[in-house]
Structure to design on (260 residues):
């Protein structure tokens, strides 16, 4: 008979980190949308579960110079409804708005999604597209470092994701074809124009790790932004695996998105 894990409720990051360090089997829980099924099925059998819901330091959505910083424990709902995110990072608001069924949308967090499965998390596209900086209790990582397919920096057992800081960009486009079972992107595309005429184009899906298409980015600056979704021909040359689904996405994008 498995032992029922004990729930611990620290109210600071430091206290949560100390509790993690004391028990190598302990796990953090934020919204519980990914972890709870793991616990129920016995895939994970920790002695202690450390809840982050009282740790206010992990919350908040704030402007810091030309970036917006989002606490790891902010929910998909809060991110999608934030006026700051809607105006400064509309592409991120679009991603958050489309995540989850009602329960997961209300309770699931950006930190939980990125720690559970960065390769399948829709936010990964915005991390790459908005040159995110990821801060944990142990280190600070760029999005490219965090999502490096050959060496992904997954979060260690004793590490806590604190915040994600993203460049603001009111000119962003996001579209996805949801996976019929999981709802996360079977194919996802995110484009952004950053200051200084820097363009970003990130894709994910179908077993393809989230990645930037830097070859195309370097040519995007010459395009009017509204034609960003004109890429199927360019992508065909660079990533043939994606082309049939991207064509479908492109048709949907033309219908759904209203770029300037
Ligand atoms: C019905 C459903 C629909 C979904 N749809 C989508 C979708 O459309 N797009 C998409 O991208 N995802 C989707 N997901 C995945 C979902 O976004 C994530 O499962 C959810 O957001 C995880 O967040 P959570 O707060 O519930 O994480 P939890 O389940 O609480 O934790 C997940 C993992 O992250 C760890 N963790 C949590 N917070 C931290 C932290 N701050 N620091 C370190 N480790 C931490 C936990 O220890 C655990 O290992 C869906 C899931 C479900 C169940």
């Amino acid at each position: 008979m498995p032992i029922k894990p004990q729930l611990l409720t620290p109210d600071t990051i430091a206290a949560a980190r100390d509790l993690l360090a004391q028990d190598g089997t302990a796990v953090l829980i934020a919204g519980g949308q990914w972890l709870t099924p793991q616990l129920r099925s016995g895939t994970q059998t920790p002695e202690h579960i450390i809840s982050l819901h009282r740790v206010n330091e992990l919350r908040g959505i704030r402007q810091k110079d030309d970036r917006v910083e989002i606490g790891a424990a902010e929910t998909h709902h809060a991110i999608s409804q934030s006026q700051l995110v809607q105006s400064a990072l509309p592409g991120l608001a679009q991603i958050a708005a489309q995540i989850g069924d009602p329960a997961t949308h209300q309770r699931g967090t950006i930190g939980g999604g990125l720690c559970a499965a960065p390769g399948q998390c829709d936010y990964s596209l915005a991390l790459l597209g908005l040159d995110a900086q990821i801060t944990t209790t142990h280190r600070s990582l760029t999005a490219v470092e965090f999502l490096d397919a050959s060496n992904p920096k997954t979060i260690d057992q004793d590490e806590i994701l604190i915040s994600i800081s993203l460049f603001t960009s009111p000119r962003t486009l996001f579209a996805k074809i949801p996976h019929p079972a999981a709802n996360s992107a079977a194919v996802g595309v995110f484009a952004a124009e950053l200051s200084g005429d820097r363009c970003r184009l990130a894709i994910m899906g179908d077993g393809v790790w989230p990645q930037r298409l830097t070859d195309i980015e370097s040519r995007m600056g010459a395009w009017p932004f509204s034609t960003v979704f004109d890429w199927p021909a360019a992508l065909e040359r660079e990533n043939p695996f994606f082309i049939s689904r991207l064509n479908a996405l492109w048709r949907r994008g033309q219908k759904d998105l209203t770029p300037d």
Summary: The pocket of flavin-adenine dinucleotide is lined by residues 27-35, 52, 58, 72, 98-101, 104, 107-109, 111-113, 115-116, 121-122, 155, 160-161, 182-184 (CB under 6 Å).
